[in-house]
Amino acid sequence: MRLPAALDPRRWWADAMTADRLVLAAKTAAAAALAWYLAPFVPLAQSEYSYYAPLGVLVSMYPTVARSASSGLQAVVGLALGIGLGLASLSVVGLGLPRIVAVAIVILLGVLLAGVRALGVGRDWVAIAALFVLLLGGADPDGYSSSYLITMGFGVLVGVIVNLMVVPPLRVERARDRLSLLRDDLGRALHRIADSLAGRAFDPATADAATAGLMGTLAEVREEVDLADESRRYNPRGRRLRMPRDLNRRRLDALTGTADATRELSAALTRLTAAPDVDTRLPADARRALADAVEAVSQLVVTPPEPEGTAEQLRAAEQALTGYTDGLRALEAHEEPLDAWEAAVSLRRVIAACGPFSDPDADTATP
Predict the structure, then answer these.
(1) What does the alpha-carbon distance between residue 361 and residue 337 come to, in Å, rounded to a whole number?
(2) What pLDDT is stored for residue 364 in this prediction?
(3) Using only C-alpha atoms, what is the Rg of the chain?
(4) 173, 245 in Cβ contact below 8 A?
(5) Closest-CA residue to 158 (of 262, 39, 255, 313)
(6) pLDDT value at position 240?
(7) Is 123:116 a contact under the CB 8 Å cutoff?
(8) Is residue 140 exposed (0-12), middle (13-18) or buried (19+ Cβ within 10 Å)?
(9) pLDDT tens per residue, range 103-132
């Protein structure tokens, strides 16, 4: 029995052993050790709580510098709120409230505060910090609380500095490569559609499977592009890139439109080829013209976003599509072939999505 992809150990290993993940793991380990070593020297914090410094590193180490800084700050704010809640609960316990009731109240209020979205990752620390102060504060809750917050904050600072100074992560190249793979997948899907049309063997199931896989890949690529954009913020390595800052985003938008149009094209062709009068509504000459147009568009899609090559393929795709639509206008059918025109509209959407990359004045770069 074959395991689902999400449960495949090989997929887990591949995800865990990427170059970016290995670098992040090494930096996190080094930063945690450094924070633990330096924690006893932090002013206003008791040395016996130095173990909170590596924890601060963990909550601040993310694949991008920007996310490290924002998540670390959010964690410290959440801790401060939780510590305040814990100290307030201790004062109530001192007045005679049973500790078990105080635990329940702290958890209740901490979970409620965790609903504040502005706290980000700090939401997860409100209830935890409050519970730690309530149960571990002991005879010196003020000393414990200040040491907890200061030492964690110090760990966050160490984590952010190490992430910034030691090979600051930059995911732009990875996003570019994923976009190119998606581009090639889209081109292959359109090529298969063109082949099946030319051979009068359009298979809706095959086309649906191809386009369904594309949408899953598109979601992964979108996440990668978001991460790449984020990785350029506050990153000194990002300033040295020659690639325009928004090129990957524009490529993603174009490929998203292309994927949507490819799905619409597949649906229109399924309706058209399933009709019993398909040879009347779409004669052999029109079918061949449509196959040629789809093939020309597939070649446009797989062309790297560079003005000269894109402009040439764009002209070829427009000429092929014009030949197809001219043939449709010449048809003398009792029923207007709406599905055939919908196929043309879908191809026009792909051409429009790729069009901006043919502009020699656009700020683009070859991926």
Answers:
(1) 39
(2) 46
(3) 29
(4) no
(5) 39
(6) 64
(7) yes
(8) exposed
(9) 999 999 999 999 999 999 999 999 999 999
Task: Return the number of other C-beta atoms located less than 10 Å from residue 181's C-beta.
Answer: 12
**Residue that the structure tokens 């966050």 belong to:** 156
Residue 178 makes CB contacts below 8 A (sequence gap 6+) with 220, 221, 224, 225
Question: What DSSP assignment string belongs to 121-146?
Answer: GGHHHHHHHHHHHHHH-TT-HHHHHH
Residue 14 CA to residue 22 CA, distance in Å, equals 11
For 225, 248, 265, 333, 354, the CA distances from 183, given in Å and listed in that order, are: 14, 12, 17, 37, 11
End-to-end CA gap in the chain: 40
Asked if 357 contacts 351 with a C-beta cutoff of 8 angstroms, the reply is no
Q: What angle do CA 41, 52, 101 make, to 5 degrees?
A: 130
State the Cα–Cα distance between residues 182 and 198, nearest whole angstrom: 24
- Name the burial class of residue 5, with classes exposed (0-12), middle (13-18) and buried (19+) by CB atoms within 10 angstroms of its CB: exposed
- 224-263 pLDDT, tens digit per residue, is 898 888 888 877 777 666 566 678 888 888 889 999 999 8
Question: Model confidence over 197-220: pLDDT tens digits?
Answer: 877 677 777 777 767 777 778 888
pLDDT band at 137, cuts 50/70/90? confident
Closest by CA to 172, choosing from 367, 314, 14, is 367
